[in-house]
Amino acid sequence: VIDNVCFAVCDPGSEVLIPAPYYPAFDNDLRVKSSVVPVPVHHGSASGLRKAFHSSAGGPGPGKREALESVLPSNEDLDRAFANCSNPRILLLTNPHNPLGVVLPSDEVKRCIKWALQKGLHVISDEIYANSVHGGDDADGGGEIGQGFRSAIAMMPELSRLLGSDLIEERLHTIFGFSKDLCASGLRVGCLHSKNTRLLTAIDNIGYFCGVSGHTGYLMAQTLQDASFVKKFLAKNQANLRKSYQTLTKHLREAEIDYLPADAGMFCWIDMQRYLKDKTFAGEMELWTGLARDAKVLFTPGRDCHAREPGFFRICFAWMPEEALKLAVDRVKHYIDKL
Ligand SMILES: Cc1ncc(COP(=O)(O)O)c(C=O)c1O
């Protein structure tokens, strides 16, 4: 879906601004067919988000909510990135966030949408984890579907009052997919919410080349019409994610590995900076290679997510058995203790 929207909206070589760190596959998704250039945009300061980490030295980070205001780049950070582009077309937001595993504060999301629309950009809000808010570390979450999370679609009326409905309807697009919340990545079904009729017509046309089969369409229709099944499935999925998250973070705390408290998705972002021999991305790769080769634990290196600094890794915990999560952390601990 992202590829099709980029293909329809951009020219080859157009830039898409993406708050970093971001989902590593965006690079390929954007470049391979549409020849669009992803531009990572960092928050100007690393220290804000760092306050939110659960640290082995200082316990839970104070003021997680305030610290999350340092996830998305400031308007000044966005201005700087924008000024370096030759043909910027889109701001791509991911909420709930991958790789950080957090629900973004809605005021911050709104600020970024407003900034982008005033610059004449389109905005894509990637909400593929919308129903995977597990609330593992956040009293707002608690496993109720969608709690603590606000879709860009729900923000449309207030954004329309601020900026005018024409602009919002033409430029704000929300995407969703069934790969995560319904654990159905093999079916390859995603969807687009947009009120831009020209975009929808274009997507209707190019969508022919990547349409879902009749069988899959039928299966999805049957599944989604069964509202009570969907509700139960999502609640069970959230409960399983929460349980895995809580098990994983219990072991991380015991191993004195610092992590960003998460409340959505299947990720935990950890800080291994102090285990780098060399505080560079080459040093990060050395640690990553050792963990994969010797500890047999595969993390996503922060470098692949365009992290601002070396030494951060994404753990994907999904529906792992509790013993596997413990074993993974034990192996990591054993490896880092020998460094
Ligand atoms: C933020 C985000 N967007 C999009 C995707 C693509 O999902 P899929 O290609 O499985 O539908 C993923 C998958 O990990 C993701 O994390």
UniProtKB/TrEMBL annotation:
The keyword Lyase does not apply. It comes from the Eukaryota. InterPro entries: Aminotransferase_I/II_large (IPR004839), Ethylene_sulfur-biosynth (IPR050478), PyrdxlP-dep_Trfase (IPR015424), PyrdxlP-dep_Trfase_major (IPR015421), PyrdxlP-dep_Trfase_small (IPR015422). One of its GO terms (molecular function) is transaminase activity. This is Aminotransferase class I/classII large domain-containing protein. It comes from Chloropicon laureae. The keyword DNA repair does not apply. One of its GO terms (biological process) is amino acid metabolic process. Signal peptide: none annotated. Transmembrane segments: none annotated. Keywords: Pyridoxal phosphate.
